[in-house]
Structures are given as structure tokens and as C-alpha cells.
């Protein structure tokens, strides 16, 4: 067993892609997955090699020496294999780390662009076919507010867009199941107008 499972370089490294790839979606997915596939194949081959070696050593120990056998009594070939196994265990840990890294690199965030019109109610649920990881809202002129009027912002599931005035918390944008909620409320001189009647807003929802 003198196989070498070292990956000196990926055949199709992610770093070889241009900063803004122009590949078709299927080809881009394949290229992003290619390093992880190389790691997976090396990982499986190494695991199978370890299993074969373990079976050989276990058989020798059980049939000839009972429970234990000094390494010096093994053939030079088998001693080399045992030494190689120790090195390969280190390589296996590295392969597993690379595989986890490759999987994390291939994960991506998709963006959904849309527009909604306020209905003037205290709040309105903008329905999507997914629960967004983040939502960015702008009013029609590309800004989030003017003066004390709040007409947009950035919201996350655990961190909604909000304003606090006089100890009162006014939500601006909150992420909900299968969508997000916008508001039309006033408190003193502060107004939240992400749902102003007949007023268009543009948004980007990430998922």
C-alpha cells in the first residue's frame, strides 16, 4: 500500500475563475463543486486503504501472536505501510478540513428584486415564497428617508429595522415567515412610512 493521496493542487481551483464569472449557471455550479469532489474522492480512497490495512494487521496479530505484535517483527513493507498510515491520518484530517471549506465556499446567497406599493394601513405583509435572510428597502428615489420620516432600511431575522423615540420602539421593517412586514405609523415628530398609501418602494430580499 504505497498509494499517495496528497492533493498538491486542485484540477479546477475556484481561484482560477474570473472575479465576475460569465459561465452558464450549471457550469458555474460544477466548477464551484469541483474541488469538493476531488477532496471527496481522495477521502473515500484513503478510508478504503485504511480499512484494508487494518484488516491485514488484525489478521496477522490474531493468527500469529494473539493480542499484540512488536512492530519490529513485521516485514519492512508492512512497517512502511504502518508509517504511511500515521501520515495519512494527518492527511485525512486535512482532507476533511478542505472538504468542509469547499462546501462553505460553494454556498451562495441569492437575491430577489421586487417592488411593492403601500396600502396606508398600520402594517402590511409583503409575501414571498421564502423567508428572507435579509431585506433592504428603498423608496422610489433610492433613499431610506428624509428628515424624521423613515421610508426604508435593512432588516435581518433577529435584527429588524426600527427606530426608538421617547422610549417607544417603532418598527420600520421586520422579517416574517414567507415574507416581510412594512409599517405606516407616527409617534410625535417621528413617522415610519414604509407602507404609505399608494407609495412605491423597491426592495432586495436575500435567501
What oligomeric state best describes the polypeptide chains here?
Answer: single chain
* Tally of DSSP β-strands: 11
Number of helices: 2
Task: Enumerate the spans where pLDDT stays under 50 for 5 or more consecutive residues.
Answer: none
Mean pLDDT: 80
In terms of DSSP E residues, the strand content is: 25-35%
Radius of gyration: 29 Å
Q: What percent of the residues sit in helical stretches (DSSP H or I)?
A: 25-40%
Describe the sheet with the most strands.
7 strands, mixed
Terminus-to-terminus distance: 47 Å
What is the succession of H and E elements? Answer: HHEEEEEEEEEEE
Global morphology? elongated
The secondary-structure class comes to alpha+beta
Amino acid at each position: 500500500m504505497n498509494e499517495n493521496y496528497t492533493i498538491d493542487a486542485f484540477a479546477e481551483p475556484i481561484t482560477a475563475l474570473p472575479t465576475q464569472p460569465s459561465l452558464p449557471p450549471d457550469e458555474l455550479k460544477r466548477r464551484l463543486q469541483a474541488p469538493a469532489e476531488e477532496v471527496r474522492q481522495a477521502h473515500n480512497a484513503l478510508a478504503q486503504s485504511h480499512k484494508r490495512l487494518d484488516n491485514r494487521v488484525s489478521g496477522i496479530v490474531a493468527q500469529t501472536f494473539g493480542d499484540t505484535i512488536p512492530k519490529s517483527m513485521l516485514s519492512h513493507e508492512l512497517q512502511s505501510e504502518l508509517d504511511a498510515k500515521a501520515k495519512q491520518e494527518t492527511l485525512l484530517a486535512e482532507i476533511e478540513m478542505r472538504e468542509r471549506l469547499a462546501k462553505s465556499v460553494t454556498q451562495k446567497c441569492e437575491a430577489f428584486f421586487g417592488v411593492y406599493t403601500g396600502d396606508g394601513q398600520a402594517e402590511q405583509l409583503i409575501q414571498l415564497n421564502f423567508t428572507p435572510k435579509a431585506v433592504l428597502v428603498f423608496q422610489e428615489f433610492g433613499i431610506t428617508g428624509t428628515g424624521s420620516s423613515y421610508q426604508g432600511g435593512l432588516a435581518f431575522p433577529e435584527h429588524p429595522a426600527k427606530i426608538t423615540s421617547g422610549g417607544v420602539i417603532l418598527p420600520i421593517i421586520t422579517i416574517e415567515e414567507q415574507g416581510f412586514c412594512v409599517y405606516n405609523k407616527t409617534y410625535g415628530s417621528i413617522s415610519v412610512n414604509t407602507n404609505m398609501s399608494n407609495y412605491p418602494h423597491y426592495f432586495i430580499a436575500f435567501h
